[in-house]
Specification:
Layout lengths: L4 E2 L23 H4 L24 E2 L4 E2 L4 H10 L15 E2 L3 E5 L7 H11 L5 H14 L1 H7 L1 H11 L7 H11 L3 E5 L4 E5 L16 E5 L5 E7 L20 E2 L4 H11 L14 E2 L3 E5 L7 H11 L5 H14 L1 H4 L19 H11 L3 E5 L4 E5 L17 E7 L2 E8 L6
Parallel strand pairs: 6-8, 13-15
Antiparallel strand pairs: 1-2, 3-4, 5-9, 6-7, 8-9, 10-11, 12-16, 13-14, 15-16
Helix pairs in contact: 3-4, 4-7, 5-6, 9-10, 10-12
Amino acid sequence: MYLRSCMVLLCLGHFNNVPTMMLINAADNSESTGFVGESSKSGSNYPDDEELHVGTSTSDEVGYFNPVEPVWQFDTCRQFNLELYRYFQFNQVVKVLNTPSRWVEVTADVNCLYRALSLWMTGTEEYHPTLRQLILHKVKNDKRIKFMLGQKNYDAHLEWTEKHFWATEVEIAAATLLLNTSIYLYSHRKGSWGLFNQNQTSKDSPTQADKCIYLQHTTGIHYNLVTDVLSDQGSAMQNALPIERRQPEFFYPVDEEWQYDKCLKWLLSLAKPFRFIQYPVYLNAPTKIVEMARDRNSFFRALSYCLAGTEIHHRMIRNRVAKEIFTNIAIKKLYKENEFISCSVENNWATKIEIIASAVVLNTSIFVYSPHTQKWDLYNKNVIDNAPVDTSIEKCIYLRQLNPNLYDVVQDVVGSFKP
């Protein structure tokens, strides 16, 4: 299927000798966004004596829905020193870019664009002030933005940002440069997608392999995340939040039988069998903790303790996890080549990729509790098909993470009563 959509041709660095910006106004109303349309004489805040050159393009190229994934989230959060609250998990099949079918409602205020980008990056809207600061810094300091607008329009826009809080197409363009990721924006009024292209070396649209961010512009100045689009066959419209687990989760830890099975498989002796309650309880805050030795091996020490009741097998577990990372094709899709090679070296702490790989190696999903967010994150053992985990019947490992490298074993939670 070919999409006939208006593309925002923001190919920075590709203008010849004329400081023009080829940009289609992808928002529904240029005045509502504070961004000038085809003429600066139409009531904008920009000077009348220098216009932005806006060109409209109807493209028969195929656009693709291929959203950013956990590795992108991990890398981006690490780059900007942000905490990754939740991974986005998508169907890995790339689709033709059609009408949105699933989206995430973002808090409706003047920060909604920054909230949407924060949600894409970290799984929470919490970092919208940080994203605003980073993007405005890019607008003010990146020479490509000044070249794109021209000096007078650039100065006028900087003055405009001092008086207004909502984002314009200029800020979206700056976001593509900041995140090195193209952004597709769907206009409800026009029923089409606009492209803010971060590619500075080519005027080509993103390919089927390129990961992008997808937003929808609804009314006024409001933006939401788009997390799925209609297939060629079509489907019912719905509003969904895929990063939230809708069913209640349960505390149902691995037990003595699980330990014996794993120790037998790995030729280990069981030093301390676990004897827990024999039924699942609601997953609340931890109450009983077994602290691990405070070194950079604490995650693997915690796994060793769950496995055999002792921390001494942490090196062996680390090596098995490292081997899984480098040989499991599904896991390799989550990271760049050689990015996590430090996993096999003692005294380097575990990352989220190691936690996922550990869940695969043990064939047991892992919950990690953060006292900072007071939330549990689930690392699914089903990395290939991402099949949901029914924690009311499947035993899991439960850990507490005090900081990036301090993990302890959780043995009980608040309100241990049968649901």
